[in-house]
Amino acid sequence: MNIFVLNLKRSTDRRKVMQEQMDKHQINFEFIEAIDGKQLTKEQLARVDIKTANRRLGRTMINNEIGCALSHASIYQKMVDEKIKEAIILEDDVILTSGFVKHLKLSTLSNLGYDCLLLYYKYYYIGIIKQIDSFDNYQIHSLNNNPHGAVAYYLNYKMALRLKEITKTISYVADYPIDLNTLGKFGAIQPNMIDTNIEISTINIKLINKWKVRFRIYSTWEYFANRVNYKNLWGYIYYFYSDALCKIFSRFKSLLKL
Questions:
Q1: Which domains does the chain have, with CATH numbers?
Q2: What is the DSSP letter of 230?
Q3: Euclidean distance between CA atoms 21 and 256, whole angstroms
Q4: Neighbours of 203 (CB within 10 A)
Q5: What is the biggest distance separating any 2 CA atoms in the chain, rounded to whole angstroms?
């Protein structure tokens, strides 16, 4: 199993922590130098359809998000060019769990027969449709829409090939450019097999932008502008209300701690 870890050249502290985790569990992996949003070239920016991206996001797509999307796209390209059968893609702020290490060594993900599996996602932000599979103490769910955070996921060559074509032009953030249900056999594992230090993200979207995207127009038009990320209109409505309420609750809890 190929394991790729995206890491910015300037993020040496994260690189060190990831190396230590992998060494501890004797896991072979490869660092992939991520594209730095602060140093985008004209050629890289030329791959971005910024109007479509802004419409889908409901705000301006920032350069760090562009760099992140291009970085994930580079792995899809690598898998296709090198005919890599399957891989696990991790961002460099992940925390490996004992369950992940166990099932990596058992080759469980390879044997489940999925084209793509999310190893981390926000459970309560997602419109879960139903449980479709299970193994050990984990369940695999079908989702109404794609989650935030391309933190950790498994994909095979078939899915990489399709994602490569979709990301020739970047028109959305890395997580994820289209409803993955349409590309192959797709599921999300719960509980998460990977944890993450999401509070130290290098993308750093300002809070005002997060609220702007939640409360700008939320209407049927917003669904049509971004319908490739949702199974249906109900999935979009379910996502919006559950996501917005959870964010308000989380914000309220953080204020109470101040």
A1: 2-257 (3.90.550)
A2: B
A3: 34
A4: 13
A5: 51
Dig out the tokens for 123 from the structure.
């459970």
Buried b (16+ CB within 10 A) or exposed e, 62-82: bbbbbbbbbbbbbbbebbbee
With residues binned 3-state (H G I as helix, E B as strand, rest as coil), the percentages for the chain, rounded to 5, are 45, 20, 30
pTM comes to 0.80
Half-sphere exposure of residue 51, counting CA atoms within 13 Å on the CB side? 0
Q: How far apart are CA 196 and CA 121, in angstroms?
A: 10
pLDDT digits (tens, 9 = 90+) for 76-101: 999 999 999 999 999 999 999 999 99
Q: How far is the C-alpha of 157 from the C-alpha of 151, rounded, in Å?
A: 19
Average pLDDT score over residue span 108-115: 97
Closest C-alpha among 31, 37, 63, 33 to residue 50: 63
Dist. CA 8–CA 18, nearest whole Å: 12
